[in-house]
Amino acid sequence: MSAFRYLPSLLCASCLLLSPSLATQAEEKSDVKRVRFFSVSPAGGTAKLFLVPGEYHTAGSPVFSPDGTKLAFDGRKSQLGEKFADGKILVCNSDGSNLKAVAPGVMPSWSPRGNRIAFSHLSPSGAALMHADGTGLEMIESGGWGAQWSPDGRKIASTFYQSGKANIRINDLIEGTITDLFPEGESPYNSLYWNMAWSPDSNWLCFKGRKAEDGTYDVATINATGKAAGFKVHYHNKTAPYADMAWHPQGDTIVFAQGAKPRQFLQFNPAEDKAPAPIDIKVNGDIIGDVCFTPDGQSLLFNVSGTED
């Protein structure tokens, strides 16, 4: 996409474009263990600082708009005592400039045209839609969580609870239909987590789930028409992996973070029966695990906790 002809250079220098006031604040708060976003090649290597998210010392769930011109994420002023319930949807240009809080909420997901955002509404809890400037709020699934907009634009996936089990619900915005991916009572999970990832063709979802029978964890893919059409576990562990999934635009790679610390990212091809392999990344700080690809697939963006750049 045209916007990404220049993105690699922006990834190397975007923090230099932040306003002096933000840079000064970062220096003044150097004793606070705050969050920053870094970028790196999907093959690994030395990560580069991408964005210091202003006065929001806790930030996560990054996602680029499909045309690559905007970045959305959630954040809160944890250094001032703000909690999860105070979370905001934040939007900035892809070079890190013009950072704005557009609405209360967490876990943004862009529409294909980049003019709307799906997200998790905090109070009341539910899957919601809004315009990219924060106006036009529409609740689409009361009690739903982790809303993710499909790349084809027609579906919203979110998690919900039914008969004591966790399930994934697909709201078709065109047909007005609802599809639950596990038949009622047949989900093996008592928890399904936020920041699922759609495949580029909108036919599959990758998610993290906690199994009801023994409390272990899966990273799995499921067909968007339901379990009967396809369901596969790619990773299983007693230790919970991080919840955020990132699916490469070409469709052949999924990235997520392991649970054990120091945390590192793992990658796998969903079409193969191979265990996820580690990505060797060098970064000054502790990897948290929120991650996304740039729309051209040339970089990973992820959050890091630390006291220095």
Automatic annotation (TrEMBL):
Gene3D superfamilies: TolB, C-terminal domain (2.120.10.30). The keyword Signal applies. InterPro entries: 6-blade_b-propeller_TolB-like, WD40. The keyword Acyltransferase does not apply. Residues 1-26 form the signal peptide. SUPFAM superfamilies: DPP6 N-terminal domain-like. Keywords: Signal. PANTHER family: PROTEIN TOLB HOMOLOG. Belongs to the TolB family. This is Translocation protein TolB. It comes from Gimesia panareensis. The lineage of its organism: Bacteria, Pseudomonadati, Planctomycetota, Planctomycetia, Planctomycetales.
